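Suppose a colleague, Dr. K., hands you the sequence of a protein chain of 370 amino acids and asks what its three-dimensional shape might be. Before reaching for any lab equipment, you can write down a predicted structure in token form. Begin with the sequence itself:
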Amino acid sequence: MSLDQSAGGRRGLRALAVLAVVTVIAVIAAGIAINNRIERTAATATGGGLVFPQLGAQLDQVAKITVASGGKTYEITRSTTDEWINGGLHGYPARFDRVRDLLTGLATLSRYEAKTARVDRFKRLNVDDPKLGAGSTGITLADEGGSVLADLIVGKTRAGLIGAGRDGVYIRLRDEDRAWLAEGSLGLERDPADWSDRTAMNIAREDIATVTLTQAEGSSITVARAEEGAADLELVPAREGRKLKSRSTLNGIGSALETVTFDDVRPAAEADLPDPPASLATFTTFDGLIITLRAGEPDEDGRTLVRFAAEPAADASDETKQQAAEIEQRFAPWAYVLGKFRSDKLRLTEDDLLEPVEAAESDDGSAASN
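The predicted structure, expressed as tokens, is then:
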């Protein structure tokens, strides 16, 4: 059983300090490579050197990343507990590796070739004003006091733009009127949700012992695995005179918690879920972990707002009790929007799973059951 809890992992100032040292080493190596490249390309109009020469030594001072893209602006900020918070996703934890990749990418980014200074051509490279809803992305790094450490507009990017194994990106500094082709890779995420771990839950289907689905009108079904290791789930109790429409649909209920990714997330206090919920799903694992999903009505795209809860069964081990507590602590503050594929599994009823056993004519004309 696995639970991906990488979202917004704790990273302290010591981690950023180590990152800064490593980056300084990378900057020195990059500087050597840049000097060699400049000598080889003397005929090319270049400014040479790093775009932000001081940034490698300032990485532990970065407290806020402001992203402007698609006409929207949001912030990724470092909290007082040194976690990174995704302001573009209602304060959901941000992934440290995404922050790290951007910061180290900016610290080692180097000028390769000067490009146009004509404002009317900036749009071709996606380095025009991000506030206009263009394809460009504005990035600003600031320290806790608000002092700007780096400020630029990031445009088109492509692996191998400069040459084999040499990535390039078009940029423009806010205080400059010229675009540049820069060498480096930023790992920049434009969609706010991509700064966070979008995996909400991940419990393998084979770990699921039973699932009960209850709908608002009162109908309820329970499916169960006969024993641990059994390939199939079965509807319990069995229904007389009815047969399965699809074995895969029934077994798919058991995979409803497997690699669950969300489309959006919001604070639980802002989640307007009906009581009782439109759908209530209760999953119990063979280890005695009980996961409950309370779901609202689907929207026009079939997406559903849900809340997760966890508790241990009465006879669960101490390890399972600890796991339940950790899941509850992680998910209690949030409500998640799940896509149609996942949401549909929560709304299955007996009629979705079963159909009548039709009478068939035997060879002598008498009715026989399939």
